[in-house]
Amino acid sequence: MESLPAEDALFTFLETLGIATKTVRHAPVFTVEEAQAARLGAEGGMPGWHTKNLFVRDKKKRRALVVAEESIKIDLRTLADHIGLGRVSFGSADSLRDMLGVEPGSVTAFGLFNARVPEGEEPSLTVAIDKTLLSGPVVNCHPLHNAATTAIAPDDLLKFIRACGYEPLIIDLS
């Protein structure tokens, strides 16, 4: 399976930041369970933390990308308190495409590459990272599509997010 042009641009951006990654290609996955099965079939496995990502909005149309460890149960009612928004619901597929340039089932922290904030402007999106992801050696995310998984060091993930113009909000979802 070959890489996609958007993925190639993402990897070029990561290289310019001095960030090393390792990508494993697999069949497209749409759920945590499918991703877990894909990991079992990957040669050498895919060690480290694996993410689940939520794209949410409140009634004022403020949006957030929440990146959490895949096994954490997230209650949308309490999530709003953690990220400083009103009561949240899932963002629409159109809004997801417009803001992060990804399809439903492919939500990823790497989507921020498509939502880079121009210098001097304020981000229109809150980015929240569960602190669990920062406690291990590797975080695994989709590279703008769900037919591959890319491993990145936690500090490099934070570096990437900041290079896209966001200051990540570190939250405790456990």
Query: According to CATH, what is the class?
Result: Alpha Beta
Low-confidence stretches: none
Query: What letter string, H or E per element, gives the SSE order?
Result: HEHEEHEHEEEHE
Based on helices, strands and strand pairing, what is the structural class?
alpha/beta
Indicate the CATH topology: YbaK protein
Helix content: 25-40%
- Span between termini: 36 Å
Please state roughly what percent of the residues sit in beta strands, choosing from under 5%, 5-15%, 15-25%, 25-35%, 35-45% or over 45%. 15-25%
How would you describe this protein?
- The protein is an alpha/beta fold.
- It contains 5 helices and 8 strands; from the N terminus they run H-E-H-E-E-H-E-H-E-E-E-H-E.
- The chain has helices at 5-16, 32-41, 76-83, 93-100, 154-163; strands spanning 22-25, 49-58, 63-69, 88-90, 125-130, 139-141, 148-152, 169-171.
- Strands 1, 2, 3, 4, 5, 6, 7 and 8 form an 8-stranded mixed sheet that branches.
- The longest helix has 12 residues, at 5-16.
- The protein is globular and about 45 Å long.
- The mean pLDDT is 91.
Question: How are the SSEs ordered, and which strands pair?
Answer:
Elements: H1 5-16, E1 22-25, H2 32-41, E2 49-58, E3 63-69, H3 76-83, E4 88-90, H4 93-100, E5 125-130, E6 139-141, E7 148-152, H5 154-163, E8 169-171
Parallel strand pairs: 2-6, 3-5, 5-8
Antiparallel strand pairs: 1-7, 2-3, 2-4, 6-7
Q: What are the salient characteristics of this protein?
A:
24% strand; single chain; alpha/beta; 174 residues; 5 helices; YbaK protein; 8-stranded mixed beta sheet
